[in-house]
User: Fold these one by one.
Assistant:
Number 1:
Amino acid sequence: MTDILPNSLAQVADLALLISAQNKRFLVRLAPDARLETHRGILYHNDLIGLPWGSRVQSHLGSPFVLLQPSLSDLLLETRRNTQIMYPKDIGFILVTMGIGPGLHVVEAGTGSGAFTGALAYMVGPQGHVTSYEVRPEMQRLAQKNLERIGLSDRVTFKLQDILPGFDERNVDALFLDLPGPEDYIAQARQALKPGGFFGSLLPTANQVSRLLIALKRENFAFIDVCEIMLRYYKPVPERFRPTDRMVAHTGFLIFARAVALEDLELSSPAAEEDAGEENADG
Ligand SMILES: C[S@@+](CC[C@H](N)C(=O)[O-])C[C@H]1O[C@@H](n2cnc3c(N)ncnc32)[C@H](O)[C@@H]1O
């Protein structure tokens, strides 16, 4: 496993991001005598190894590049994809809300291209583990390659299995579903989660959310929350500071819940609680 935490100098086996003056990005793993061929000329890894991160470097044709350590967001955007992948704006909020951190065991389905798998593997650290289910072999292979590329595959167990019969794991800290029809797998999720464990899902359309809410309530999940993350970028130009012309308007609804022993209690999240007055007014 390669350390992708910040060091001050680029070293052999580090992941490096090279960005050209035209904003083209290249993610490479630094290796002695290796070379990166770009549309603006060749960069020799030997010239990069030992340089401080943030250095300006140039190709054999004299074209400038900047040498950077990739952030988790940079790594995720580099994911080679065959499915709709999850966006950093959603991933960041999901990780925080579901308490994903070092040493945890997290289960997810489906693996897809592995963008979210990469984020989970990054967050659980070397002591934690991710188990990721997928039914399509070609998707699993792509995700495995993506995880190998960012040096995190040894934190993940990839399972080529349909989750309909259930998960093999028990007492997991958190479980995330990013696949069609998550309402069909809520009893299975409940069995796999530890008491108090976190459930999360992402769904593109509102009617799918309604079906999932019914299933979560049926399986006695508590603290259910539904939200959506809207991210707007601004042009960082002091004299013309304003929003950028375009934004990604909708990626998906995020649904969160916790597996607790409910019996006759109905527990809502603080966000849902704040809205209780309005709900009463709605009848
Ligand atoms: C939207 S993609 C997941 C994308 C992934 N989160 C990412 O960030 O790259 C959904 C995946 O779920 C898989 N899938 C669908 N039904 C499944 C099931 N019952 N069990 C396991 N995987 C399933 C699909 O093959 C597909 O690759």
Note: Residues 137-149 form the longest helix (13 residues).
Number 2:
Amino acid sequence: MANNPHVIILGAGPAGLSAASQLVRRTKFQVTVLERNGWVGGNAASFDLAGMRVDYGSHRLHPSCDPNILADIRAMLGDDLLDRPRHGRIRLRGRWIHFPLKPIDLALRLPPGFTLGVATDMAVRVVPRSDDLGGSETFASVMEKGLGHTICRDFYFPYARKLWGLDPGELSAVQARRRVSGGSLAKIVRKVLSEMSGRKTQGSGRFFYPLSGFGGISEAYYMDALDKRANFYLNAVAESLHIGEEGGFSVYYEREGRHHTLQADHVWSTIPINVLAGMMQPSPPAEVIDAAGNIDFRAMLLVYLVLDMGKFSEYDAHYFPEETIKISRLSEPKNYSGVRQPEDRTVLCAELPCSPDSPEWSKSDEELGDLVRDSLATAGIPLDATVLQVYVRRLRYAYPIYTRGYEESFDKLDEWIGHIPHLLTFGRQGLFAHDNTHHAIYMAYCAVDCFNEDGVFDREGWGRYRKIFETHVVED
Ligand SMILES: Cc1cc2nc3c(=O)[nH]c(=O)nc-3n(C[C@H](O)[C@H](O)[C@H](O)COP(=O)(O)OP(=O)(O)OC[C@H]3O[C@@H](n4cnc5c(N)ncnc54)[C@H](O)[C@@H]3O)c2cc1C
């Protein structure tokens, strides 16, 4: 191994960028990052549209972020890291409920049938209906057991069908256990009560947000890593990864139509784990290739509408569980930062989860603009403004899909990759984890922490950190 080992990081999303920044800060390693886009930030990036900064759908930094990471982000962003109140709403059976939930609002606005249903669910011990599933637990059975039938029927189940494109009974129980915050009625009640005056927990109902858009977090890590001489190749698509006979790797990538190779002592991948498996040379055994084929991600269309009005609504986000409304969420970027300029325009961003094989994926911008317009009209918030522009971005890898039984395929893939010395996979795509940004950054910090002073990677330590990652619960 060289004196100054070379680490190549695949992907410049929050995980790859924070790994690069921490490696150049805490080690003497050479660091090179390959990113397929011409910009950094991955799914958590921001960009300019019609003179405004917009994100890839609704993004906020949750106060549950690890304190050391939050301190680093604060140190990099200073006063540009805003502390903002959450102000969203959910459409439930035709009514709007404030999100995060507020006791008074719940009392006054919840549909009576819904309230009665939840009360009955609380009184009666709910027996999960798993008889048709051979007795094994699923997202549906765990959620019904914890939250009761009413909340599941009216909120979680239709929302799950939209987000993952599967019936709740076809989703793994992992989705419910590890990926839904407030997974029991008792937790929800505690959360609502904590909203009452004097009982709020720190950070409750608030979020952090960079003045320059959520992507400001990634950009700060990028600038920090660049400043400390990490190398970045943007528009560089990693194509294959050859394991050398004496350790180390040859990384082949394509950039602007040309093919290049780099030598690495370590490769840290934050790209989708199934894509990584497909680019390994020598190729994995057939059963690992099969396992990679059983892992899939939900895609998402982000439809941005530029309106000729200063503000569409006071809300940062509107959530739409109902299946009659195609989009899952609508956000108004201006309301995240509180910036009012430009006074005469605003942008809305509609999230439309879908499959890349679906007709939606290949619709034109205008058709998608019409779809959003129809969705808003159905939701009772029609667009009463001129749409100056429709702009669409496509995320191929938005959400991991935890189909029942996916664990076996993931474990096979993970185990095979785990046996290749000096290769590490992490981040939301790399560990197939439905995680928040601060979780992806936490993984990167932990990876760097596993290098000892002699540049030896502590695999056992990484194994311990992996157990911690399994406790992460995603927040909306
Ligand atoms: C709609 C939506 C809303 C979200 N809201 C929130 C929120 O409010 N708060 C929050 O904390 N998190 C939120 N998230 C999650 C957040 O976006 C992710 O946690 C975060 O982006 C994960 O970072 P990552 O670096 O692990 O992966 P990514 O951001 O996906 O980065 C992976 C990078 O790898 C690159 N790449 C892929 N293949 C190759 C290749 N072959 N060669 C080179 N580069 C490659 C990609 O271009 C990408 O830049 C949201 C996600 C979505 C989809």
Note: The first strand starts at residue 6 and ends at 10.
Number 3:
Amino acid sequence: MQVVRGKRLSVTDDLTTPILPGTAASDYERYLRTEELLALQKTPEERRHDDELTFQVVHQASELLMKGVVHEIERARERLGQGNFADCARLLRRANLMLDYPIQLLHVLETITPYDYQIIRAGLGHGSGLDSPGFSGLLHIAPRLGDVFFGQLKEAGLTVNDLYRRHAELFGLHDVAECMLDFDERVQAFRFHHLKLAQRIIGGFVSGTMGTPVEVLRQRQEHVFYKPLWDVRNEITQAASGDEGSQLGHGRQY
Ligand code: HEM
């Protein structure tokens, strides 16, 4: 007899027999609901093209990951409101790591040829990423996180510049600011790589399945959530270099 996590196991106990509710063969499948999950893609008979499974898997995986990102940012926002900067930064880091994957997954779809994609596209109806629940969730939560962050600064009587100048003393909130910047950069990176994907697969001067010109995607790609966090870099450089500083920036806007 041995003891596993406080429970006495006899030699007759079978660790391979599922104990969770459900009908699947193992607790792994019951917990993760793999039967339902793996039935969410078109069957081979339903597919218009063999690349369609990859197309669906990439989109579905991205939706799941973005759902996770939104959840963690919501939790981070709560921690920030409670003044728990360390835990807020930890959750934002997790959200950022998770968001790396939808960005990477876009590259998988670059392997679909423009001709093959037209076959898949013919079955999408008006389906468009504009209706992505995951991305809409990101667009919804990001400014709310910003509201709490800038509210904290205001309450403490600090400007963004103060926070960056006194970064060692104000490490916790400075760390949160940098995680928010990482997040902002990732959303931009998603939009950039998505734009390149659209340009490669359907072209840069056509419209999508919901009628949005690809050109609009290019314009959206420049949007940022936390402009003051980008602007403060200019202030710091300009203050350090005098007027000359304004000539030093590499980017057009930030
Ligand atoms: C072959 C691959 C893809 C193509 C050609 C494509 C093309 C497009 C186009 C043309 C739009 C503009 C809206 C419209 O449809 O009229 C759009 C929007 C969008 N797509 Fe895709 N897309 C692809 C894959 C993906 C993937 C894998 C995702 C991940 C979830 C995604 C997420 C989005 C989002 C979030 C928007 C709204 C963008 C924004 O607000 O900036 N797309 N897509």
Note: The radius of gyration is 24 Å.
